[in-house]
Amino acid sequence: MKDTLGRTIDYLRVSLTDRCNLRCIYCMPAEGIAQVSHNDILRFDEIVEFIRVAAGLGVRRIRLTGGEPLVRKGVVGLVGEIRAIPGIEDISLTTNGILLASMAHDLKVAGLDRVNISLDTLDPEKYAAVTRGGDVKRVLEGIEAALAEGFDPVKINAVAVRSLDQDFYEFARMSCDRPLHMRFIEYMPVGDSAGCNGSGWGPQDVVSCDDIRSQIDGAARAAGRHPLVPASNGSAPDGGGPARYWKFPGALGTVGFISPLSNHFCSRCNRVRLTAKGGIRPCLFSDEEYPVRDALRNGSEEEVRAILIRAIGAKPDEHHEGGHANATETNMNAIGG
């Protein structure tokens, strides 16, 4: 399945819910989000049907996102149903890790292949402040559980924010002794133009991936360690995503960089997104959506297929907002990342 620019679209990100058990300041207001009617959220059977149609058109990879996908009841059973769809080769999940330790085993048995765990700081006080009350120890327990269950790869995603004053080298060192793949993502000021729900962060807080790597290499040299080197194809994790991977010589894991702003990867984009409310998003950085919920409930498979094909045909060549991801007023919790 190709778009009008010849890009193969084989990756579908599915948001299961816009709710979350954290209140990260760059994602959600302190009071949470307005309660969406139960009838407005896609049922699991509707999600499975959409994935079945997408698989028939060539989608091979599925990523479950949120909000926080593990807060939605029945997610383990959903993984099992997706696993049974012909053509689906890979199922992954992005989580904040808070509930992962207690669910990792059941998710693995159901057929989940790999996990991405969001963790923006290792400092307990900073983590509690950014998430408005989260406990970083629970996330670290989730990481250990994912490794113990044999998820492969286990990726840690950290959004780099200048005002957060993160220790990038401390993060990168996590890849040395365990098969963890640490990825740094350039901060994207996505959401309301007033400043991401009052977080106080804006375009001035973007740290480029080149700057992050430079800081890591400088700290490594100061610690007597060899700086990062490009990861070989054999050591870089699979996943179909846009990260460029490096590693410390002899490390069990890698350090990846995702640069949607400083070096965007639009020409290689291979994905579309399905929101929890049943909208197909051709591009993360645009509010353009193609509603498919009614077709799933009242239409035919042919209508669902036609809407998906139309959405893929509308994928832009790239985002055109002066280098910053401000083309959308929708907050990240409602998109699914």
Could you explain how this protein is built, in words?
- It is a single chain.
- By secondary structure, the protein is of the alpha/beta class.
- Helices cover 29% and strands 16% of the residues.
- The protein contains ten helices and twelve strands.
- The chain has a twelve-stranded mixed β-sheet with strand order 7-8-9-6-5-4-3-2-1-10-11-12.
- Helix 1 (44-56) links the parallel strand 1 (11-15) and strand 2.
- Helix 2 (75-83) packs parallel to helix 3 (100-110).
- The radius of gyration is 19 Å and the shape is globular.
- 48% of the residues are buried.
- Mean pLDDT is 89; it is low at 193-197 and 322-327.
Output the keywords.
alpha/beta, globular, 12-stranded mixed beta sheet
Q: Unreliable runs, pLDDT <50, ≥5 residues? A: 193-197, 322-327
Rg on CA atoms, Å: 19 Å
Secondary-structure element string: EHEHEHEHHEHHEHEEEEEEHH
Report the total helices. Answer: 10
Please provide a brief summary of the model:
The chain is of the alpha/beta class. It has helices at 44-56, 75-83, 100-110, 124-131, 136-149, 168-172, 174-177, 209-222, 293-298, 301-313, and strands at 11-15, 61-65, 90-95, 114-118, 154-160, 180-186, 229-230, 244-247, 254-258, 271-274, 279-281, 290-291. A twelve-stranded mixed beta sheet has the order 7-8-9-6-5-4-3-2-1-10-11-12.
Topology:
Elements: E1 11-15, H1 44-56, E2 61-65, H2 75-83, E3 90-95, H3 100-110, E4 114-118, H4 124-131, H5 136-149, E5 154-160, H6 168-172, H7 174-177, E6 180-186, H8 209-222, E7 229-230, E8 244-247, E9 254-258, E10 271-274, E11 279-281, E12 290-291, H9 293-298, H10 301-313
Parallel strand pairs: 1-2, 1-10, 2-3, 3-4, 4-5, 5-6, 6-9
Antiparallel strand pairs: 7-8, 8-9, 10-11, 11-12
Helix pairs in contact: 1-10, 2-3, 3-5
